[in-house]
Amino acid sequence: MIPDEVIEPSFSLSLTPYSGTWTKDQAAHLLRRTMFGPTFAQIQQAVADGMDATVAQLLTLPITDLPLTYLPNELIVPFGETWVDAVYPTIGPSQVDDARRGSLTAWMIKRINQPTVSIQEKMCLFWNNHFGVEESFDARAIFNLMDLYRSSCLRNFKQLVKDVTLDPSMLAFLNGHTNFQSSPNENYSRELLELFTVGKGPQVGPGDYSNYTEADVAAGAKILTGWSVQGWWSDTLTSPQPVFVASEHDTSDKTLSSHFGGVVISNAGDQEYANYIDAIFAQPNIGKFICRKLYRWFVNYDLTPDVESTIISELNTILEANNFEVLPVIEALIKSEHFYDSSLRGTIIKNPMEFFFSMFNATNSSPNFGLVTNSEMYIRIYYFSRALGMTYFTPPNVGGWTAYYQAPSFSRLWASTGYLNLRSNFVTYLTVNSGIPINGEFFKVNALSFLNGLSQPDNAVQVIDDTVEVFCPNGLSVSNKLLLKSLLTNNLPDFEWTTEYSNYTADPLNNLLSDPVRQQMEQVLNCLFKMPEFQTI
Question: Is 373 helix (H, G, I), strand (E, B) or coil?
């Protein structure tokens, strides 16, 4: 008699800490999801350190450096010094702000091109997407918001919402600075509920969206009246600041709907906004909305009913039990059995920043030509990313980039035919061509540096195996590996590669020996970076 077949679940639905084998497969998956392009050495080190130590390192935030002046139209701050707390000139402040925006853009992209094993930059981009703020009037204000994201990226979600609510960039972006008792503006009040905290939910009645009502939006607008900003482009103040104007604040009692327990928010002056946010965060299951977004960012876009009832529910419990601290949620997620399930590898298509910096960071490629040239090269990459659909710090709308909320496509929106053609062109430009030309210097993928860091650079088979392990979450077919090896060896026997590489290492400054090795490795990367297997994490 044949026993009944035991049907195993398609993947683990448990936040129980992962206790299976810890190999380069699991280590690489963790680093790909939490960093922008781990190196071969970082993956090997993560294998040696184990999951707990690697996660602890990822969740330790490095000190943030500061953007530096490098353009001549900065009239206040000397070359090479930071402008983040500097005033503006009384005449011509716009040209100074242009200089600071250029510096800030270069700095933001440089931050991603870092070798540090840290989740900080991935989380900074996450919050940029979550709050969806566009650039404001003053480069200092943009820096301050980015600095808030970085410093608070793993801290308290409720406090972060409070801080962002009064951030000058947000006050300007969603009209909080023109929200007066005589004419309440509902823009921020609506997005605070719909996009930043509880989420809209299905409509269950006239003006009732399951988690809040139109009356809550109107009440929230009144609660938030009275805030303005002072110090834009100021020649006396070192940064824009939120200012509470009591005469513009609605002092009436505001009653919220049953979704918030019918709580009454009474006049509390400049603390009323905080009391309102506390009331929002008292709603049951408030954390599920942000847990869903974290799940889609780090694990998979597909929120099945099973994932919703298990993983999301458990993450929400962790968030609420820790008074809305984000770090315990992230730690539980990226250490869970569910996260390391092999069926979830390669399920997210890289966004443009992940696309570019999985090439640059994993190959130890960063410009090293001086502040001016480096900055201009980073700005060029910023525009490359914009051409692929992601303008850093400027999402297309307050909801963020559509790839993170537009069902059913989600991250597949990054892989439209037009975008894939552009990706292919950028790969050629940055691998086999000369790269980004600035001031007589060129920046491209450093194929030799990558090759030299592999386990056995003189072994053609091992070079391809190591390369695939770094860049392809689900590996590569035998035929594609053979194709890459043929490019590496120039269709010669494998021993010829061993000889060629050995001759190069014996005399590495001899271009006649190094150029063929570099060019053949560039051909490998050029081919691999255009394959579908490279486009996912």
Answer: helix
State yes or no: cis peptide before 408, omega within 30 of 0: yes
**What's the CA gap between 344 and 293, in Å, rounded?**
16
Predicted pLDDT at 10: 52
> 524, 427, 525: which is closest to 484 by C-alpha?
524
Q: 82: which strand partners?
A: 68
The domain total for the chain is: 3
- Between the two ends of the chain, the Cα-to-Cα distance in Å is 45
In the block, which residue shows the tokens 């026993």? Answer: 3
Phi, psi of 404 (to 5 degrees): -105, 0
Q: How many CA atoms lie within 13 A of 253 on its CB side?
A: 4
> How far are the Cα atoms of 76, 226, 241 from residue 230, in angstroms, in the given order?
20, 13, 5
Secondary-structure breakdown of the chain: helix, strand, coil percentages, each rounded to the nearest 5: 55, 5, 40
Inter-axis angle of helices 157-165 and 139-152, nearest 10: 170
pLDDT along the chain (537 residues), means of 10: 40 91 98 98 98 98 94 97 97 96 97 94 97 91 97 98 98 96 97 97 94 98 98 96 98 97 98 98 94 97 95 97 98 98 96 98 97 98 98 93 94 95 98 98 98 98 98 97 98 97 97 98 98 97
Task: Please report the pLDDT score of residue 4 as a whole number.
Answer: 41
Beta bridge partners of 264: 255
Report the interhelical angle of 313-321 vs 327-334 (nearest 10°). Answer: 140
**Pairing between β-strand 436-438 and β-strand 241-244 as defined by DSSP bridges:** unpaired
Count Cβ atoms within 10 A of the Cβ of residue 317 and give its class: 0-12 exposed, 13-18 middle, 19 or more buried.
middle
Two structure tokens written together for 134: 């566009």
What's the pLDDT score for residue 2? 37
Q: Does one domain contain both 180 and 272?
A: yes
Spell out the SS3 assignment of 97-140.
Answer: HHHHHHHHHHHHHHHHCCCCCCCHHHHHHHHHHHHCCCCCCCHH
Whether residue 103 contacts residue 67, with contact meaning beta carbons closer than 8 Å, is answered with yes
Asked whether the beta carbons of 448 and 521 are under 8 A apart, the reply is yes
Asked if 513 and 478 sit in the same domain, the reply is yes
State the pLDDT at residue 9: 43
* Largest Cα span, the chain: 92
**What is the rounded CA–CA span in Å between residue 104 and residue 86?**
14
- What's the residue count for the chain? 537
Instruction: Note if the pTM is more than 0.90.
Output: yes
Measured in degrees and rounded to the nearest 5, phi and psi for residue 14 equal -130, 140
* CA 104/CA 141 separation, integer angstroms: 11
Do residues 512 and 503 touch, judged by C-beta distance below 8 A? Answer: no
Q: Which two tokens stand for residue 62?
A: 């490095």
CA distance 436 to 444: 6
Which single residue is written with the structure tokens 């607008």?
A: 221
| 173 and 191 in a common domain | yes
Give the count of alpha carbons within 13 A of 377, CB side only. Answer: 26
Residue 322's domain spans which residues? 287-336
- Domain contains 32: no
Query: Last residue of some domain: 259, 283, 307?
Result: 283
